[in-house]
Each structure stands twice: as C-alpha cells, then as structure tokens.
Amino acid sequence: MNLDDVARCEIHPTIGIARVGNSPDGFFNGPETPGVPPSPSGGFKDADGRIKRQAARFRMYGYDRAGTVLGELTSAEAQIVWTAELANAKGEWFKFAGRFHESTADSNRRNQHIDPTDPAARARLVIRPGPRSVTGPSQDGTDARFDTGTFLGTPVPLGELRTDEAGRLLVLGGFGTSASVKPANPLSHYANNDSWYDDTSDGTVSATVRLSPDGRQVPVTSARVVVAPPDYANGVPSVVTLYDVALEAARVSGGLPTPPEVSFTRDVYPLLARPVALAWVNKSARAMHGDPRRNFLTPARLARLSSNAPDDAVARQAVFKRLRKPGLVDDVSQANAGFMPVLSGDDGDAQPNRPRTWLALLPGQYARMQRWAAGDFLADWTGVPAPIPFEAIAPADQPHALVRAALETASGGGFFPGIEMTYIADQQSTWAAPFRLREDLVAGDVTKYMALPWQADFYMCMDHWWPASRPDEVLPEPAHDGLVQDAAAAAFQEWDRGIGDGENAEKGMNEMVEKWSTLGFVVGRPGPSGSPMLVETERNRP
C-alpha cells in the first residue's frame, strides 16, 4: 500500500464481540474468519479450570479518496492510539418485560429505591469508568484497565485494553462477577434484580492515526464492542444469527442491495445445516434431526434438497411447509411445536396458541426459502465451502469478513432479551449504516436492556431458547466413544446438571452465579465412523 493514497481509515469489525471469563490471565481472540469458530490453545479454560475471556480484536484499514480498501495498517505503518470506553447501565435502565410489554415510565425503572427523578443519584447505578487508551505493539493492559467504575459505591472492574504484536487493539471484558451490594438479597427474577450488578458491558472503539514517516493524521471511523456472556457451544450457530438480523436490517433500509437470485449454497444450505447442528445441544432438535431419516444433510436427502428439478419439488416443499411464517400475531395455527424452529421467540417462553412466543425465520430468509421450495433458485451446490484463511481473504473483503465472523456466532433471536443484544438489533433506528450502530449510542446503551445479572436468565432459559450459546443437553466426552448420534440419546445429559436441579428457580439462578464457570464447552470430535460429533468437554463438576 502507498501510504500517500490513504485518505481515511476505518476500524473493523464494526461491532466486535468480547466475552467474560474468570481466568485472570488466560484469553483468546474471538472469531475473525466466517465459518471458523475459535479454538483456543489448551482449551477454553486455563490449567485451574477457569474460563478464558474472549477478546474482541480490532484492526485498522486504510481507504483512498474513492472509498477503496487499500489494506490493513499496523504499528509498522502508522502510530495508532486506540481509545475505548466500556460501561454497564443495566441497573439504571427500565425493567425488562419483553419488547411487546415495555414501559418507559419512571415507575418502571430498576432500583426504585434510588429516586428515578434524581439524575445524580441514578448515575451511581451506572458502571462507567471512562475511556482508556493504548498504543504500540504487545501492550499487556496494565495501564489501560477499566477498574475505576462503581455500582452504588462498590468497585466493578469491566476489563482492560491490550494490543497484539502488530499493535492491533484487544478489548477484554469483565471476569463474570455478579453480586448484590445489599446483604441477604438473593436473585428472584430472570431479568430484574435490584441492588445487583454484573460486569458485562458495551461501548465505543475509536483511534487516532498518524501515518509514517511524516506523521500525517487521517480521520478514523469508529466501531463498537459488546461484552457478553461466554459462548459455551462455539461451533454451533444459532438458527437466526445476529449477522442475519443486521444484514436484513441493512437490506430493508436500502443500505445494501438484495441479491436478485436465491443461491442454495449461500441462502438455503445454512438454514438446513443449523438445526442439524442444534441436535447436539437441544433435545427437540435431536428428536427431529438426530434421526437419519429426518436429517437434512444425509447425502441422499441433500441431493434432492439442493436440486431445482421438478421431480424434487415434493422434497423441498415438505421442508418449507413446516417453516413457521414470520410476523404472525392473531393466526395461532402455527403457534405449536409442529412448525420450525421449535424455539422461543420475542414474547416469552414458547406456548401453544401464542404466535409471538415462537421463533420464526426473518422475513427475508422466509421469502428466500419460499422461492427455493418453488424451484426458483440457483442449484449451485458442490459441497460445503471450505473456509478461507483470513490471510488469504482479499484486503477489500477483510473488513466485512471480520464483522460477519463476529456476528455469526451471536444470537439473532429470540430476543427475550437475548444473549449479546436484544430486539433493538432488528430496529432500523438502531443502525446508522449497514453493520454500523448509531454514533449517538453512548457506552452502555446496547447492553442496558439485558438481564441483570446475566446468570439469572442463563439459568432460567434452560430449554428451547439459545442452545447454540447456552446448551440445553449435551453428550459428555467420555460417553461418546463408539456411539452414533441417534443411538446416543440415553447418554445425553443436562448441560447445567448440578445447578438448581429443578428444586426451584431461585436456587438455580443463585447457584448459576456461583457455578457458571464450572460448566462445560461443546467442541467437535471425530465420531466412530469418522463423521464429526459435538461433545461436552472441560466440565469441572462431576
């Protein structure tokens, strides 16, 4: 790259996802290549069984005056001073009740014992340590810690900034600490618990760039970071991902064009493969797709589903007619487990005859599947596309690859409230441009809707919610030897076994606060026939 051609810079990914962990030093970088989940050296836990934090890594890209990506800038080409701000505003925000039942009345704010009409008093409920900056390669975070924020006077560290060997920014979040500042105050609600805090967060990522060797400064477009709970099943994508939601919002707004054709490989195959993967972490998906006769990906069935020949229309239409139509409110005919996905939606736990409590594909996804069922698609299937190593991705495509990799591992529903973001993700007013959040959203504005603390919701949503992040049932690693998935049903166990164990919700939520880091991670292993299996590993508890 000719540095004289650099007119401006952008930080990518536009939204990075970091995740909490209780290992004091261990961390790994989040996914950066679409289709390639993280695989930390030594596993997701350190030698003492503590969960490593997932860092969100940000890169700087140079653009010319025409808006063409010239390539990545590192500390070898420029002096980059990174600045980020993290905040947690959950305690000051309104109680979560679901997108259809929210109230913005002061009487509905969390922590009513702090006068809702007194801004100065309410500010003590926001953990806001202020911005931190870091520059140069291999910075260890010592001088850029978010350790001065407090919740009602109690210090709550939110993480730190580091850099890698090339000077790229690493944002590390909190350690999964959740507690009440009020003694003898156990959790009693899945989302709203007064006097409680946690150390998830979100915020802005900005920078100043001075190009070498003359120190010419160029403008920089900022990015965002979200610090979320751990993803305990990194290799299992959600049926609807946060990337899908952001892409749909960009197309509906006109910010991105919608491709005129439907591609089986690009548009249809992922929506067939994802529920099959869920069979490793969810009982309902296993009952349906763990059976080879109902598995979309068996060679004979996939051959028919990927064909647009008239003779294969019956096979395609048999799948499509089971897809739940999005946007149903009064039509209760599909509000049951006879339609897919068999997961909960934006209005609470899935219940018969309540359409909005059931997850559906996004309208754009459903429309593409409808065209597929009718045979109006490109039959371009040649096999699962091999992931391209990041270094082999063309520089012009790297910025989008980074945001896609980050958001494809995040949940796009049901938003009750969700894992990383809630229903604001599918609102046009949330976005300033494709995959770019509004600039007037201050640190804490994205995660303030989420459950307080996150462990309460994590325990309560133990079935048909977000099994791609919070597994429902798993196959423990020692039990998978010699088994095939459909013959292993008896070997599957509850992922959160040993926590609550069904005694009562309050006991389970409070034990999740204490024991979340003892739970296992779901990873890929070769099965007895050479086919991949997903099994639970690194569980600390018997």
Automatic annotation (TrEMBL):
L-Lysine epsilon oxidase N-terminal domain span: 12-227
Disordered as annotated region, ranges: 21-46, 129-148
Pfam family for this entry, one: LodA_C
InterPro entries for the chain: LodA-like, LodA_C, LodA_N
All residue ranges annotated as the L-lysine epsilon oxidase C-terminal domain in the record: 346-473
Protein name as it appears in the record: L-lysine 6-oxidase
Organism field: Streptomyces canus
